[in-house]
Amino acid sequence: MSQHPLPENLHIDTLAVRAAVDRSQYGENSEALYLTSGYVQPDAETAARRFAGEEEGYTYARLGNPTVTSMEMRLAALEGAEACIATSTGMSAILLMCLGLLKSGDHVICSHSLFGATIKLIGGEFAKFGVQTTFVSQTDVAEWQAAMKPNTRLLFTETPTNPLTEVCDIKALANVAHAGGALLVVDNCFATPILQRPIAMGADLVVHSGTKYLDGQGRVMAGALCGTIALIEDVLGPVMRSAGMTLSPFNAWVVLKGLETLSIRMQAQSQQALLLGQWLEAQPQVARVYYPGLKSHPQHALAMAQQSGLGGAVLSFEVKAPSPEKGRENAFKVMDAMRTVSLCTNLGDVKTLVAHPASTSHGRLTEAQRQVAGIQQSLIRVAVGLEHLDDLKADFLRGLQTL
Ligand SMILES: *Cc1c(COP(=O)(O)O)cnc(C)c1O
User: Of 46, 7, 4, 38, nearest to 21 (Cα)?
Assistant: First the structure.
């Protein structure tokens, strides 16, 4: 790297803008974007050594690219991890993890509140290859403990969850996993390393959908896994070489620049979500608000201790309704009357987004499964952005006043 090494012990905000800057001979201050799939080799002997892994050096973009490497190193610095491997989407990060760590006959324990596609991938697709999965309560550590078997290889959780913002105790789950010789994997998509650093709490791997807060402005898809060099480079790296769920350099560059503002965005959007949540709780048309920053949240104390005192930027609320049919009708009325926010199932954007989980992200579940998951027809999820709070309140009021 053509620069002075960074001082030790920098704060996370400094790492977000300064870590892994790899300047070219031109001395550019903003990170360069290397849009190239191949690399010219200086001579045939060097090419042979690089392909054999005996010498560092880029050979082909499925195996590595300088822009992707910068993004990986910066995210690793933020997560406090030894290493990171970037992937094309969040789901392909989870696929890479499964391909690298699981084999036929292994057992996995997952929270039943996981992201829907994660449940389908691990519990459905990998069942075809002889991997058995047990789904347990997000919040009851005793259930995780009771589900442990001699062949349990992984415990997989996500905290806070989508859309009900349930929080689990990362340290307690790490202890359960390690006592049984298993690994703990945490999907840190909602909290990001600004609020929560799972590796410092005992997690072995952190999963990210870079599509969400890491990009932060809803532009690109990306994913990543963070952990030890032994897991990332020695176990997952070779799988990536063959399987090829590589992140494009352009998307890596967008995420790399997004990380620079992650800290102020997460703080501002969390603060805004708390104030909006408190306001929603006081509205007569609202039955219940789910947000870890509110005192009414069942795991409020744990969330505040585990998430640097911030609740994150996602909240959900139920509108009042006498029946599920009326609940759906009322939720639709509220969302359709809003004019500032977007009706959009993404999250992690600076634009505030609202969505109706029961008919979109959780639409493929049966009504009975939705009841078990606690997803009511009257539930609206809000991914709070950076608009002025007064304008957001006015827009929600516009919606609520239709009831
Ligand atoms: C969006 C999301 C994913 C999947 O990420 P993609 O980038 O959409 O593939 C995984 N986990 C959580 C918690 C998510 O919100």
Answer: 4
